[in-house]
What does this fold into?
Amino acid sequence: MPSLDDTDLPVGFLESITDEEAQEQLRDPMRWSYIVRNPKGMVCAFGRGKTPRACERWAIRNAVAHAEELWIHEECWFLGGWRFVLWPPSEK
It folds into this structure.
């Protein structure tokens, strides 16, 4: 399985990775982790932050950039259907 840390991820991987697989790769002992899924279910943003609020800000910023980038290729984007998944720091 590719890693979310790879710089050139195939779209098929971003469409097929489960929340559990993303959690395994992203959870960190010190920081919160998140993914954002677009209305088609593809992971379009992910990362880590010091607080849940920081993760939310980055998630929104990256989701907006993703939507703007793909806007011309999609028939329409609905406001509903976006998913934000957040994990607390893992305890070790």
Observations:
- The longest strand covers residues 43-49.
- Residues 11-87 form one domain.
- Residues 10 and 83 are 20 Å apart (CA to CA).
- The beta strands are 32-37, 43-49, 83-87.
